């Protein structure tokens, strides 16, 4: 893996909040920051959600605060991306993320590979919104290999609801 340039590393601010409340507070005070982020990346989002007595409520509250903060940042600096990682421990998380219109990509162990082999499938509507493009990758060690790219037409019936 290439070594990042020192100038690029100076642009990254790492922060290790201990609770969902700390993240929500940061979101509520984002307007007081002198430098706004272009991306908010939260690793192990499920850890924060499991701190709540009601995981679905806790997830919705945390995601809502992050979405609101990102929207405010984007209104001031043109963009702010939200990226989360989470394990499957919190079963309510995918449904909460879908309510906020997030796209979910799942990384799964490859059935044909070794212990360090994974499969990633990304599905996204095309810009014309008439097709859905699916890209499959295989990840082995440091190698990411494109497996397939498929495109399929969306149903024309307007009453069809996408599967959750």
What is the secondary structure topology, with strand pairs?
Layout: H1 6-9, H2 20-28, E1 39-42, H3 45-49, H4 55-77, E2 81-84, H5 93-99, E3 106-109, E4 117-125, E5 131-140, E6 143-153
Helix pairs in contact: 2-4
Structure explained in plain terms:
This protein is α+β, with helices and mostly antiparallel strands. Helix content is 29%, strand content 26%. It has helices at 6-9, 20-28, 45-49, 55-77, 93-99; strands at residues 39-42, 81-84, 106-109, 117-125, 131-140, 143-153. The strands form two sheets. Strands 3-4-5-6 form a four-stranded antiparallel sheet, with no helix packed on it. Strands 1-2 form a two-stranded parallel sheet. α2 runs parallel beside α4.
Summarize the structure.
It contains 5 helices and 6 strands, in the order ααβααβαββββ. By secondary structure, it is of the alpha+beta class. The strands form 2 sheets. Strands 3-4-5-6 form a 4-stranded antiparallel β-sheet, with no helix packed on it. A two-stranded parallel ribbon has the order 1-2.
Average pLDDT over all residues: 80
Mind telling me the C-alpha Rg? 18 Å
- Which strand-content bin applies to the residues? 25-35%
The end-to-end distance, rounded to whole angstroms, is: 36 Å
Biggest sheet layout: 4 strands, antiparallel
Identify the quaternary structure here. single chain
Provide tags for this entry.
alpha+beta; two-stranded parallel sheet; four-stranded antiparallel β-sheet; 164 residues; disordered C terminus; 26% strand
């Amino acid at each position: 893996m290439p070594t990042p340039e020192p100038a690029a590393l100076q642009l990254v601010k790492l922060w290790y909040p201990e609770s969902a409340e700390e993240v929500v507070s940061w979101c509520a005070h984002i307007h007081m920051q002198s430098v706004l982020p272009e991306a908010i990346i939260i690793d192990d989002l499920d850890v924060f959600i499991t701190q709540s007595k009601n995981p679905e409520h806790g997830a919705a509250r945390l995601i809502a605060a992050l979405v609101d903060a990102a929207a405010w940042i984007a209104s001031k600096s043109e963009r702010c991306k939200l990226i989360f990682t989470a394990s499957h421990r919190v079963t309510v998380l995918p449904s909460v993320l879908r309510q906020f219109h997030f796209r979910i990509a799942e990384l799964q162990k490859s059935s044909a590979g070794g212990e360090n082999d994974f499969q990633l499938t990304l599905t996204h509507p095309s810009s014309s919104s008439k097709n859905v493009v699916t890209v499959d990758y295989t990840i082995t060690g440091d190698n990411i290999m494109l497996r397939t790219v498929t495109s399929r037409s969306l149903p024309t019936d307007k009453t069809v609801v996408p599967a959750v």
